[in-house]
Amino acid sequence: MTQAFQSPGFAALAAGRAVETRLVEERWQAVAWDLGTDRRRVVTDRPGGVHLSEIEPDGDAIWWFDSDSDERGRWRREPFAGGPDGEALHGVPPGRPYGVAFDRTGALAAVAVGVDGVSHCYVGPPAGQARLIGSAPGYLSLADLSPDGRVLALGGRPDGDDAVLLWRTDGGPAAGAAGGGGLRLWPIEFNPLAVLDPELLLVVEEDERYTVATWRAGTGLRRYPDLSFDAQISAGWYRGPRGVLIQHERAGRSRLLLAELDPAPVVRELGTPGGTIHDLSCAPDGTLHCVWSRESTPPRPLVLRPELTAGARATTRSGPGPHRTDPDRTDPDHPGPDRTGPDRTDPDPDGTSRGRRWTARPYGRIHSFVSTPPGPGPWPTLFLVHGGPATHDRDSYDPRVNILVGHGYAVVRTNYRGSTGYGARWQHEYDHRVGLAQVEDLAAVRAELVADGTALADRTGLCGFSWGGYLTLLAMGVQPDLWSLGMAAQPIADYPATYRGTTPALRELDRQLFGGSPEEVPERYRAADPRTYVHRVRSPVLLVVSKDDERCPPEQVARYAADLRRRAVPHELLRVDGGHYSRRTADHRSVLAAMVRFAGQVWPAPPAPPHRPPRGDRPGGTAQPMEGGEQP
Q1: Which of 173, 224, 546, 556 has the smallest number of CB atoms closer than 10 Å to its CB?
Q2: DSSP-based three-state secondary structure for 240
Q3: Taking the mean position of all CA atoms in its chain, how far away is CA 172?
Q4: Spacing of C-alpha 578 from chain mean position
Q5: What torsion do the CA atoms of 97, 51, 91, 85 make, to the nearest 10 degrees?
Q6: Is the peptide bond before 604 cis (omega within 30 degrees of 0)?
Q7: Helices (H), strands (E): how many in the chain?
Q8: How confident is the model at residue 549 (pLDDT cuts 50, 70, 90)?
């Protein structure tokens, strides 16, 4: 059994039991972990793997979401010690998983599922009959169930009237913490020790600040100004009645803080190594279990043991998404206002160099991670464009980077506008110029790398997955003179068509990005659509699609390929299995192998010069060609 790359989920009332989602024979499966004996039992054996698993608070049973590649399915349940599995809640229709939660004892469970564009929330005893609590059109995520099982916290659009919804499980009147008016809210979780008077933890974005907050029925929303940051955070309750654990990042690096809310916030930073904390959970004894990596180090467990305080605590949850940090902290990886260009280069033992770069623009600095092969440049250069857009590249291990660098390419990971981790303004303020602002940033970084001798001007290309694939296709048409290669896996190739065919959650994201639907703001979608510029594409393009992809449907990519074919643009359309995000590692390897092969065909390695024996003071030897077409 290989190492888990997700942190365990611990049973709140059974300290010796946990569940992990681990790679088992190259597929993610749910695994029961007995901490007392350190024995693990593989619970699931799904051909396509599973990506969600939970454990009941009393540790009696493991839950996992059983779905095929179309992402629809049901929650299943199996005793911790083994035995027959069955439906976790009866009467819940198959749908997309929008959240699961338990009350304090585990006697009541709640699930939210998306069915045909509507969010439904059900509650019931584990393995028992569920009852419908409420439904709403669009996407609502289930944040938590109150410890007494009486209130559900759900989150919708952060700046909308449904930012935080509180539904009573007995059918009583609903409540909410108002959003809008420049206020954005994310519900996190209920305080597990506030049983009689439920207290909800939230993150509030207001005036470009992200602040820890709480909500109670009697007092409403309460912000904690001493726990306010210049960019996004995630948080969770931690041991004791007023403890909060906060995770945030600066320039792609993580740190953790512990805070006591009352009487006045007292904050203590936990010592963590440089790099990224990918996932985090808390054992009942307060021990923090992290999955950590940095660019040169694959993900591995990191266990932190803060000073324990009185009062047992169960688990903490990740917050509303991306994380950010305090602007006043001195950090060598966050340059001052006048500092741009290369930041630092860290050579690996094999000669690979890994550096961080800041590219100055009138609207701010663009942060990139640059990895180069051994020896002198310039090199053929691939921009590995991250998806999202609400995410960012980090100082973290990415096997794709290592493989591409190993084939002789410089690899650039750029946190363009729209990326998280650099503040609200960097994420949101580009006037709904979706895609266009981002490819401008990629072009600016490219120009700097060509000018300083890192990148070969005639061999710079783009490689992206999902929204990164979308930016790849858009740039190939908007900036045809800059990019001589494009490789896009599961991309948006026809934006209006993708909007109509994608999931409700992604339609809501698109409405936020564009300020409306294609019917409401057609000119914005037209300006952002790769098909608008397909007639300008000249360089070879690799397209990868999955027939089961409901996020970026394959039909719209096939139409883009047909456009290229009519214009005699060299391209390849590769069809794969596994949906939008395959849970099989072999699928990811095959796609990357196809990209390496395609890049090697488009940019063949130069022929080696004829061998000449050493003469005089001239160094001898034979130059080694770049193995551009070798399979990883």
Answers
A1: 173
A2: coil
A3: 36
A4: 18
A5: -170
A6: no
A7: 9, 36
A8: confident
pLDDT in tens, 588-606: 888 999 999 999 999 997 6
Of 131, 84, 93, the C-alpha closest to 109 is: 131
**CB-based burial label for 380 (10 Å; 0-12, 13-18, 19+):** buried
> Which amino acid belongs to residue 549?
D
Alpha-carbon gap, residue 20 to 29, rounded angstroms: 8
Residue ranges in 338-423 assigned as alpha helix (H): 399-406
Residues 6+ apart with CB under 8 A from 504: 114, 117, 118, 119, 138, 139
pTM of the model: 0.84
Burial class (CB in 10 A: 0-12, 13-18, 19+), 207: exposed
How does pLDDT run across 216-242, given as a tens digit for each residue? 988 899 999 999 988 789 999 998 888
Tell me whether residue 172 is exposed, middle or buried, using C-beta atoms within 10 angstroms of its C-beta: 0 to 12, 13 to 18, 19 or more.
exposed
Q: Which strands sit side by side in the sheet containing 276-282, from one edge to the other? A: 276-282, 288-294, 297-304
Q: Which of 470, 607, 461 is nearest to 525 (CA)?
A: 470
**For the sheet containing 131-137, what is the strand order?**
96-102, 109-115, 118-124, 131-137
